Each structure stands twice: as structure tokens, then as C-alpha cells.
Amino acid sequence: MAFCEYQPGLEGVPVAQSSISFVDGKNGILEYRGINIEELAQKSTFIETAYLLIWGKLPTKEELLIFQEEINNHRRIKYHIRDMMKCFPESGHPMDALQTSAAALGLFYSRRALAKDEYIRDAVVRLLAKIPTMVAAFAQMRNGNDPVKPNDNLNYSANFLYMLTEKEPEPLEARIFDVCLMLHAEHTMNASTFSAMVTASTLTDPYAVVASAVGTLAGPLHGGANEEVLSMLEEIGTIENVRPYIEKCIENKQKIMGFGHRVYKVKDPRAKILQQLAERLFELTGHDDYYDIALEVEKVVAEKLGTKGIYANVDFYSGLVYRKLGIKTDLFTPMFAISRVAGWLAHWKEQLAVNRIFRPTQVYIGEHNQPYIPMEERF
Length: 379
Known about the structure:
This protein has helices at residues 37-43, 46-55, 61-73, 79-86, 94-108, 117-141, 156-165, 171-184, 191-200, 206-217, 225-236, 242-251, 269-285, 289-305, 314-324, 332-353; strands at 21-24, 29-32, 35-36. It is mostly helical. The chain has two domains: 19-170 and 181-220 and 333-353, Citrate Synthase, domain 1 (Orthogonal Bundle); 225-324, CATH 1.10.230.10. A three-stranded antiparallel beta sheet has the order 1-2-3. The longest helix has 25 residues, at 117-141.
């Protein structure tokens, strides 16, 4: 085996071959199965996009209707899981509740028939259908309320917003949330996807695969960044404070949340679409002062750091959109998870087709031939 130089974080090291998504960081291009994300955001839906990612092609009208009906029929969660969730501490983070609940699904569907297409499809349907229900259920129960039952008359995105607020969203709100889900559904070999693939490579069940990915997504350097963006905008407070705040961050070499990406060296194409969605949403629901602050932050950061390839990423505007939809800040990352389940499952299915357990090596930098020191001689 040829010697490979150690790369912290595996930066730039290929770990798989995939036909699911493509990113061109220099030109700001994102494609799902070869289709540009801008076109999907304009013409598709989240459920159709999930089908595309997982099965590798756009569904026919009949295939899509069957897929949607299967998901609608599996939205409800077993009362054992609801009872378990009622025991979670109200102060617990929703991502921790989601990881636990997703893993618990494996107790009820533990049969691992990974070679059977029917098992794979059933797992895909259950996870896509039940993850939003579990997120909404915990959001209700931590406030002392019973979960809101799914509304079979509403589509995927509208139903989630309904379960979260017990109020039917405006059609534009539901559509904007649906596009948000599409934008976050997949993004090549990110940390949570790699986590999912490592877990999948052991041939464990898909519920454990998704639970491991949720745990990885929860970190502030991955999915948790959009929560930090809102905190930053709150801390800045006014447009006048933007420039001194950003300059101080740069001087102290502090990370500016919502900016910079390991792949993109231009503005994230998803951020462009989210900014447009934010503007449409503000037209419907009213002006948002945070948006004005955000625009000034983006302007100053581009001025100061644009030459280094640091621009707004997908997290920068997503929080503003979620906030306007009435979603609480600590639920922003679960929104990411609801969406990214589609990408995780696509990679899980792809991994199964060519599976080889991940077993990387390491560069040992410790000592050798050290003596064992008796307890009485240790200091």
C-alpha cells in the first residue's frame, strides 16, 4: 500500500465513490443526481427530491403518488415511543431527544434484512415519515402539551408545521419550508454523512445509522451553526454595531458563524436561494430587523474576508427563515436533520451495494518500550 500523508480531518482525502451529489466549490455549483439545486428548488418538492436522491431517478407520477401515500401512512409513532419521550427532561436539547428517539425505532423494527428491497424501502419510508413527527412531538411535550396528531390532508412540509404549531400554515410558508428541506437534503461527504456511512458499513440497522448521523449533526461546527448565527445577530443588535463587531472577531481570530465553508470559496448557492426565500417570507409576514443586520454583516465580511474565499454559507440565512416561520432557535438543527435524513439514507443504500467496513489507519506519535511502573513508585 502506498504511503499517504496524514491529513487532519481527512481534508481532501476521498473515502468513497458516489453518484448522489456533486459540489463545485469554486463556481458555487450543487447538483443532486446531476440536477442543479436551483432547478430543483424551483420545480420539485422535498418528497420528490428525496426519491431522486435515494433511488437515483425522478419518479413517475404514479411512483411519486405511491411514495407520498406510504409516507403519509407511517407518520404516526408508537405510543411506547411517545411515553418514552415524555420522560425526557424539558431542558434537554431537541437534537438529543431526536437521536434517542431515532435509535429507539430500531427496537421496534430490528430485523436486519439488508439484502431485501422491501426492507430497505420500508426503512426509508418509516424514517422519512416519523422523524418529523418525533421532532414536533418533543417540541410540544417539553411545554407540557400532548403531541399534535398528523393531519392527513396536509403535505409533508405543511403537516410538520401544523404539528409544531397546531395551526395550518399559509401555502407560501409551507412551500418555503419545503424548499428549505430540499436545500439541506444532501451535500456530499460532510461529517454526518461520513458518520452514517461508517456506521452503515458495519451492517447495523438503518435506525442506528440515522441516530449516529443525528449525533454528529448536533455539533456547532456542523448543523448547530444556524443556531449560533441567530445568537450572533442578537448580540450585534443594530446595524451600527456590525462593523466593529466583525472587525473585533477578525482581530481576535474568532469564527464568524454562518460564513466560510470547507468546499465553497464563493457564496454558497443554497444561501442565495435562502436569501430569496427570506425576502418572500418577509413580504408575507412583515419586515425583520435581523435581516437588515444580516445584510450588513454579509457586506462587511465580504469586504474584509472575501479575498480569502469566506462568504455566507447555508446556515447564515436558514435561521432567519425558520425564525419567521415561528420555529424556535433550538429546533433549527432538527430542521436540518429532518431534511438530511434523505441524504443519509441515499448514502446508506449506496453503501450497502458496495459495502466494505471502514477501517482507516493512524499515524502513531507515542512512545515505545516503556516500563511498567509499580503503584508505589508513581508520582
